């Protein structure tokens, strides 16, 4: 564990807490893409198949349970909670993400560290996470103004993988046999997808204005 | 600590 990875995990945890706060405090999920939440639930379920087979540390196990539990809870809330579900932007959240899921799974069948059930699903989760934010970014552009908590949620979600890139550089420099090309390349693609959001987020922060993404 | 299939990250 290094400071970059810890910062990344904490930033990721903060993004989940901000989203839970938004939904719980405002009893609304307007501006949040259910499709992105469902993709993230798939990412965690596919990535943490080793949850019960490989014990790495208490921290690792607890964080995996938190991410799986929170992503499923948010999907459940947005689908079935009788108050929250009413504020879901159903007609704006129309990204056909099964294309992404199919493409990522096909890529994982071709490109993986080892051809085993667990490894293929792990590579699938890495590729899927890289594009999981797309429905959310599309929804933000369509829904125009973005409320603060939603903007902060997306910001922290994008920032966490940027910390992981620093972690991979650090591990590459300090650990002799460290190579994680699948994670690194996907992580770069993932962070790059946030580039324009980060730009408009910074502009809105500098001008102390509402976050506006161009349509 | 490297894991059998090397995934010690979240």
From TrEMBL, chain A:
Keywords: Endoplasmic reticulum, ER-Golgi transport, Membrane, Protein transport, Receptor, Transmembrane, Transmembrane helix, Transport
GO MF annotation terms: ER retention sequence binding
Location in or out of the cell: Endoplasmic reticulum membrane
Pfam families, per database record: ER_lumen_recept
Top-rank lineage group of the source organism: Eukaryota
Keyword Protein transport: yes
Transmembrane regions: 55-76, 97-115, 121-141, 153-173, 179-202
GO cellular component, one term: endoplasmic reticulum membrane
Membrane topology: Multi-pass membrane protein
InterPro entries: ER_ret_rcpt (IPR000133)
Recorded coiled-coil stretches: none
Example of a GO biological process term: protein transport
Homology family: Belongs to the ERD2 family.
Matches recorded under PANTHER family: ER LUMEN PROTEIN RETAINING RECEPTOR
Designated name of the protein: ER lumen protein-retaining receptor
Biological classification of the source: Eukaryota, Viridiplantae, Streptophyta, Embryophyta, Tracheophyta
